[in-house]
Every structure is written in structure tokens, then in C-alpha cells.
User: Fold this.
Amino acid sequence: MIKYSPFEGLTSGETAEIRSCLCPIEKIYGKGDIIMQFSDKDRNLGLVDSGTAYLIRIDIDGNRSIIDYYESGDVFGKMLAPESEIDAYYILAKEKCRISFFNYDKLLSKCKNNCIKHTVLLNNLLMLTLKKAQMHIDILSQRTTRQKLITYFDYQRNKNLSDTFTLPLSLSDLSDYLSIDRSAMMREIRNLKEDNLISADGNRFTLKNSRYTYADC
Amino acid sequence: MIKYSPFEGLTSGETAEIRSCLCPIEKIYGKGDIIMQFSDKDRNLGLVDSGTAYLIRIDIDGNRSIIDYYESGDVFGKMLAPESEIDAYYILAKEKCRISFFNYDKLLSKCKNNCIKHTVLLNNLLMLTLKKAQMHIDILSQRTTRQKLITYFDYQRNKNLSDTFTLPLSLSDLSDYLSIDRSAMMREIRNLKEDNLISADGNRFTLKNSRYTYADC
DNA sequence: AATTACCTGTTGCATTTGCAACAAAAATAA
DNA sequence: TTATTTTTGTTGCAAATGCAACAGGTAATT
Assistant:
């Protein structure tokens, strides 16, 4: 499985060069802070240095969904976000976060050195965001709660290269990300345990069906 | 609402230049033909000149889902497609299609003229695919059949700039794209009619709730 | 240390959704 | 044309899911 990152295909020297060329601004956010609101004025792109954050959608009826989540190395911004005239989207700090903000007018323009590295970076950002979106579609398009859970767990297994892994989300938030009722999800997790397909201790899970292992990748 | 297209931001002259530079190969497919299978050998990117095609997923249990669909101007290819070791993905011609294939090694490499247009094209392709994926997530993350339908119809209204529009999918295929049971979907469409929120004749629909119109965009 | 807020886990019950099956209509092929 | 396949539309029933409410545990805050 290919791991996509913003600086994929760039050496650490080039990465440093881009960083100094684009001179990002670092900010710290506390739990529950709103990091970005996607107003027209906001010409920044956020790179998560540490902590976790959510992309939240509030729809016309006030329902809250977790559309995406960001861990260290993930990136967000208006350019990469869904647009809507109806729903509100914002980035929420789930825990204390350190974020580097890049001005993306600088990112989009050619720099003095006429280097194509900006473009490589831009492509990486788009590809990274696309792959996460495709993963989410893969999960959401599963027909049952059970299949949504198993598909999500399978991605976690591949990401962690281990049958045992700790969820990056609380169970409560996971149900939001999977777009299912929390109590129904808890019920199905119990069923999966009873069917001996998983075991779990808190939010540390082990996938027991070994038909397809991360080693197959 | 911004309309994304592969050649967005390029003049018709530049578009022609790219086409001649990349010299795409045109092919015609009949209804039901498999256009692309995402094998490693396939280094092509397909642009739909006419007709419609689907991105199909067949999961481990044999279930078929429509993950994406392509109309004139849309683009597909291994680079833009989900990857999976478990599920099979392929592009299926829904009706007679004319497709232009671009070699994307050529696309990714700099051309002799050192033009950045290839890169613009690449960014457009990624952005186009991302926006479609985000739309799909927006729809699939709706909790009820009713909300999935209304959200989908709303996108169609915006795309067509009219409260009345013809679906680009058959109702049968729409249920696959929305990941819901067809009969349940038919039942909910009937309910929507009875609640006077929509009217429909065949697969020509009119959205009657005018809280938010395309004019607001 | 005490208080508060949040998260986990559970249950009964109502509602929604999926499943299976069928008939009619429409589109496609022979 | 006629035959065949696909799509639409419907229904009864079973199963899955959502809703509301609550209790206990854990983490965060004062």
C-alpha cells in the first residue's frame, strides 16, 4: 500500500527548502478550538504537526457529522474542503494541536527559483486528500453497520501493519465518521466479538479474520 | 458554484496544444463493455468524449456497487481510482462511449517545450476527481434514505441550474450509487411525492422545496 | 479532592430499511 | 415483427437500525 504524504517524492533538503520558501506560521490550539472556518478570506493551508483535528459538517437541521479527521502529517484547507451553500464546515481541534499554516497563494505561484517543487507539493496534497476521500467512500458505501466497521478496521490494520491497533477516534466519534447511530454501532461491535471476528479492550482492537492480512499488500 | 473540468484555466489553443502533444488514442465502446481494469500495465487515462460509464466495485462477497459515474468531459484512470487488494474495480460502459486515452507517463513528464500545462492539467484532474468524491461523501454520509435522495437531487439541481432535471442514472443504478436498497428507494421517492417535496415523470424530477435555489449560488 | 463533563455500554421499543417475490412497462435484441 | 432482457413500481414480512433514556466509568477541570 502506497503511503501518501505532503512531501512525498521530495528529499528532506527539498522539504526544508520549501518550508523556508513558504515560511509557514505555527500556531497552537487547545481542545475544542475552531482552527479554520473556510471563510473566503482564509488563504491558508494547515499542516498538522501534532495532535488531531476533525473536519465537521453541520447540516441545515443542525446535525453534526465528522467528514474527515487529521493526524500528524495530514493537511487541510479551503481548497481541499467540500464547498456548500447549505451546510457549515469547520476544522475542530480534538486535542491540543500544533498546526503549520502555509499561504497557498505562495504555494500556487511559481517561486523566484522557478522550482517545480511547489507543484509537486500541490499534487501531493490533492492526491493525499483524494485517497482519504476514496477510503471514506469505500467505508460509507458498505451496506451494513457490520461491513462498515469491518472495512474501517481493515484500513486501520493496513495502516498500522498489525492485526492489533488503537483507534485514532473515540468510539463516539467513530460512529459519526461512519454515519451510523452510536448505540447501534456498540451493539454490532458486541456481535462481532461474540462471533469471534474481533476482540477489543477499550479502543484497542484486534481483527481475527485473517483471510486478508496486511502482509498481502 | 465552480465547475471543474480537465482543461479549466487553459485556453482552447492550449487545450489543442496539449492534445496534440499527448496525442490521445480514441476508442469506441459498446454498452456493457469493460473499458478499463486497472491492471498495473495500464498507463492510460481515459477522457469521456461522449456516452456514460461507471466505476464499479465488486467486493469479496460479489456485491456490486457504483462508486462513480462519468459523463462527457469526465476522466478516469488507475492514478485517480481507489486501490484495493480485496475488491475488484473496473470501468464499465453504460451506453455507447467514445473515450480518448492519454498516456500518463507523458502527462507526468515535462514536454520538450518545458510547458507547465501538463501540470495544470494534472492538478485539474485531481481536483475534478476530489470534488466528485466529496460530493459522494456528502450524499453517503446522510443518515436516511430521504436525506440521501434530497442531497443527491440538490446536486443535480445545482448542476443543471434548474429545479427540473433528468437524472444521469437510471433509478436502478441510482440506488447502487446511493448504496441503498432499490425498493426502499422507490418507496421513499413515493413518500417524497406524497409530501409534495418532489414531482417526477420517469427519471425527470422537479424539486419543489425552494428554500435554497441554484440562484443562491 | 470534589465537581463536572464526556465517553462507554446497555436496553426496550418504534421506525426504517432490506429482502424476496412478482407484475407491468419499457427498452433492446433477434 | 416477436422475443428477451432490463427497468420500474409495488407489497408483505423479517431484520436491522435509530431513538431515548439511563447507569457506570473515565478523564478533565476547578
The interface with chain B takes residues 1-2, 57, 63, 65, 67, 80-87, 116, 119, 122-123, 126-127, 129-130, 133-138, 140-143, 154, 179, 211-212, 216-217 of chain A (CB under 8 Å).
